[in-house]
Design a protein that fits this description.
By secondary structure, the chain is an alpha+beta fold. The chain is built from four helices and twelve strands, in the order ααβββαβββββββββα. The longest helix is centred in the last third of the chain and has 32 residues, at 266-297.
């Protein structure tokens, strides 16, 4: 047989246009798509898990996140009384910032804060009796706490401040009168129901008062207790930052402008003298050394 010649029994030439080739290729593709390929490359994909099988996992993750948020970030609290009117109404839900205290932040004048009962402030308050569902939702932070004895008031003075209020007079902090018309209940006096002071607030404690002055059992009414009516910073849960419910009551809770007036801070009043003294000491020491040096040369 001549070189290059083909046998009549050999397979036909593999050309793109050959009809038999097209048919065999199609059969191979169908076999691959049916997952019957011998090499396993066309194995069928696994079906996704049904929504109902995923639901318990999603609920678990949501509950863990809610618990973490409640423990470290924010927590809802319900307003149980009228002592903070008109800033807060009975039944309002406020969100309390619990994050900043973790970084060492302390309560500031003018802030509305939630704090645990220091002891004896809520003795006459009837204990709540929540059901199992309420307890669970409170535990994870989806409902305000129903069992903890917490109060909400406005910080008027902090550790180191001197605060007082005489009958028919304003509240005075470190010699500066507060203009409280923007936040106390209309028609109330600053303290005519219970004048007080002057009182020096111990370090690490705060003096608190309700915005509805004539309907608030605040620091003024607990001066016979340990702490003299002040609250330890350690008892403060956090600052109330927003009224979250009901929706038509939504509002932020900023610090009134009167607490930003110059000279209100006792620390600020002392600081210039302290800075001046600190600056004068090196100068005096330098002059004394210079004088001694010149004496030795003579």
């Amino acid at each position: 047989m001549a070189v290059g010649a083909r046998s009549g029994h050999e397979e036909p030439e593999d050309r793109p246009g050959n009809p038999e080739n097209v048919e065999s290729a199609g059969a191979a593709d169908r076999a691959g798509s049916d997952g019957n390929s011998s090499d396993g490359g066309g194995a069928a994909l696994k079906k996704p898990r049904s929504f109902w099988k995923e639901l318990p996992l999603l609920i678990g993750i949501a509950l863990v996140l809610a618990l973490l948020i409640k423990t470290f970030l924010v927590q809802a609290f319900s307003i149980p009384s009228d002592s903070m009117q008109n800033t807060l109404q009975r039944g309002d839900r406020v969100l309390v910032d619990k994050l900043t205290p973790w970084f060492g932040a302390e309560p500031k004048r003018g802030e509305v804060v939630v704090f645990h009962d220091p002891g004896g402030w809520l003795e006459t308050t009837q204990a709540a009796n929540p059901n199992v569902v309420q307890k669970f939702l409170s535990f994870i932070g989806l409902m305000p706490s129903a069992e903890e004895k917490d109060l909400i008031k406005r910080v008027i003075a902090v550790g180191g401040d001197t605060v007082e209020c005489k009958e028919d007079g304003p509240v005075v902090v470190n010699g500066k009168a507060l203009d409280d018309k923007s936040y106390i209940f209309p028609g109330n006096t600053p303290c005519n129901d219970e004048p007080f002071g002057p009182i020096k607030v111990p370090e690490g404690r705060i003096w608190v008062m309700g915005d509805h002055r004539q309907n608030s059992r605040d620091s003024r009414y607990h001066q016979e207790l340990p702490g003299g009516g002040t609250v330890s910073n350690d008892e403060v849960v956090g600052r109330a930052i927003v009224v979250a419910w009901p929706i038509n009551r939504w509002a932020t809770l900023p610090v009134p402008d009167t607490f930003d007036q110059p000279g209100l801070s006792a620390v600020a009043a002392v600081a210039p003298g302290a800075i001046g003294l600190a600056g004068a000491v090196p100068i005096v020491i330098w002059r004394r050394r210079a004088g001694l040096g010149s004496g030795r040369q003579n």
